[in-house]
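Hi P.,

Sorry for the delay on this. The queue was packed all week, but I finally got your sequence through. Input first:
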Amino acid sequence: MKRGPMIGFHLSIAGSLDQSVDRAVEMGCTTFQIFTRNPRGWAFKPLDGGQVELFRSKRSRAGFERVVGHMPYLANLATSEGEYQRKSRDSLAAEVARCSSLGIDYLVAHIGSHMGKGTMEGVKNVVAACNQALEADPGRTVIAIETMAGQKHSVGSRFEELRLILDGVKQRKRIGVCFDTCHVFAAGFDLATRPAVEATMGMFEDVVGKDVLRVVHLNDSKGPLGSGLDRHEYVGKGQIGEKGFRAFLHHGEIAALPIIMEVPVEERTQFEENLAVARRLLA
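Then the structure:
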């Protein structure tokens, strides 16, 4: 595999988990992200031993240094509502265990909504969910809590909230942050110019820390700055634009992280175009 920046897409596991590795290789990715199961339901089948071995062996042969998993959509780690909270925590614990079995390095987790119970209640719930999941699994998979877009009652759209969650998790080496550019921009932190990137990232590093970033979601934003809209656009085609992404990708150690694009790709050529743009901006 070609060395250089780790950059790729969220890819399908249709057919079998190991086929996501084949797709990543075919597209020229140097990292990739997957769901380990159907993301739209609570129920799932246990991993098959042969499937695990095939995924691991294909990944090893392809030379992917880092691979990323993503939590299913239904879980809300910040909720206080009894049965919903239990299902969400169980889902996180199950995904950490599945990713550990597959050798997946990072599990990106949406933090969720406190549903009117207050930010600190939401933070407490996220911390409890992460501690439960990590204590139950002796593996090495790191939970990467994802920056949120500023929706009503969301937890994690402010940098101070991320820091509070990180401080509450006992296994410090197994918790970090996934920085989603669309979400951060939608939450009101400007990334559209070099001075704006330096100001936003300086604030992030001062409040959350330089050493906590584990994954980048490189997504442009359909919505304007501070809109609270979680609507992804092709890199360079939205409100952030190429100048902003170039400045962001060349800030600090960003280029050394796994960079995942979650853009609304419908055709193979769109994958190729987005990958080419991202690599040009990284060059």
